[in-house]
Amino acid sequence: MGSGRNCWALRHSGVRPLLTEAQAARFDRASVLSRVGPAGAERLDPWHPTRDMPCRDAQYDALVDSSRAGHANVFATVQQAVDHCLGMARKTESNDRMFIAVAPGLHEGLVYLPKLAFSRVRFTIFGLGEAPQDTVLHANIDAEMPGDEYANRFERQFGQSDAAVKEIFQRIAARTTLSTANASVLRIEADGTQIYNLTIHNRYNADRNAATPAGLEKNHAGQFAKGQHQAVAFLSAGADKVILGAVHLKSFQDTLYLQAPDKFSTVRSYLFDCDIEGDVDFIFGQSTAYFETSTIRAIGARGAHCWLTAPSTNLRTSFGFVFDRCDLTHDSSDLARRGVFNLGRQWFEAVRASPYGIAPVRGYAVTLCSESRYDPPLGSIAPASLQSVGKCVFLNCRVGDHVNIAAPWDDWSGPGYGPDGQLLPGEWQPRYRPVQTGPKDMARFLSPWAGTEALGLSECPDDDIWLGEYNPTPMLNNT
């Protein structure tokens, strides 16, 4: 796109788009969750999930309780209970909902819920404790784990699993390294899955040397502040109509991944009364999700910069992430108290070379292509990357003092913004993209490409809202 001095796409100060009451009204729960399918051609499919949860004495098809394992329909692990329900579905070709109750305690291991080709069986998994922290599903797994390490560590627990579960395990084990999309404690592929009253904890401690730039030292807890330390607690892998109620999700980087079936479509999730914590991009993905009356907790103790969200919604998809009446709080660490964290940054997914700004690389140029690549000084960008604009709105939320109010939204691979909202000094990165609050920003920043069909702007309303807040209020004393 040019050469010369370092230029950060015309913007040198932060923005805080505040919505009007009329604009905020577009993001009511019924509207956000009413559409699903291909970007730009979503079908109307009204979905009205409730906040009802199974009571502790509800009927179930399988119980997870290691102290009683071996009794009828009682299993030592959650995955064994899932496999039992899958076996029942295979025998009966049932489309019924299967209920799995989990006794209080610590439950080790990964859990995979596949989508069956022959059945639309749906799962409800619920903890029997008085509170979510009483029933904990946990494991240690990260994106840079080699496939053979994954196989050695987890093969035994999948040895007697259903064929559909084994296929997932074998596909992941065959990888050189797992990648973020395969590094979760709980993986949901089955539509209609419901999870209630549980804690899901990825115990990875951000300590893998191979995932860390050379020269960095660990902190007192044995953690690195920077590097490729993605470790997902909960992954919705293209599943539609997923509900999480009173679920605690714990990790550092990439805690909650809400993945779409592909880069040009969406599915839906509804989360209420949840507690989600992490640091780097810890709520992220391509799909549509509505978060209600939940706590979103930024963790600064590791020393990493924190972005609460990293949506990569396709620009033709109607809605991304919506947070309604949520508490945005933090762990009271020194870094959090500096007020430098961000509500989010729009994930420039799979980008290799950016068309934004002016690169200080002689001969640098980027063209549209079917694949995103960068062989300096020439690069290409695919429509899937260009259109992953990321949409996220906060409604009536209480905002802690960890958020940089002058610049709550951050650039992707930019230098960042100070507490006064001014752009910080920093070196240009080939994956850079500025904050884009809507289509007009994209058209302005990419004015030479504005009429290019691959941008997709002609199909996007001029007043489409990609980022915004409505009626934010300060959280006094972070409580």
Automatic annotation (TrEMBL):
Q: What Gene Ontology cellular-component terms does the record carry?
A: cell outer membrane
Which sites are catalytic?
A: D281
Top enzyme class of this protein? hydrolase
Q: Give the EC number(s) listed in the UniProt record.
A: 3.1.1.11
Q: What positions does the domain Pectinesterase catalytic occupy?
A: 227-348
Alphabetically, the GO molecular function entries are:
pectinesterase activity
Q: Which UniProt keywords apply?
A: Aspartyl esterase, Hydrolase
Q: Which GO terms describe its biological process?
A: cell wall modification; pectin catabolic process
Q: Which Pfam families match?
A: Pectinesterase
The gene is pemB
What species is this protein from? Pseudoprimorskyibacter insulae
Checking InterPro entries in the record gives: Pectin_lyas_fold (IPR012334), Pectin_lyase_fold/virulence (IPR011050), Pectinesterase_Asp_AS (IPR033131), Pectinesterase_cat (IPR000070)
Instruction: Provide the family line.
Output: Belongs to the pectinesterase family.
Q: In which pathway does it act?
A: Glycan metabolism; pectin degradation; 2-dehydro-3-deoxy-D-gluconate from pectin: step 1/5
* Protein name per UniProt: Pectinesterase
This enzyme catalyses: [(1->4)-alpha-D-galacturonosyl methyl ester](n) + n H2O = [(1->4)-alpha-D-galacturonosyl](n) + n methanol + n H(+)
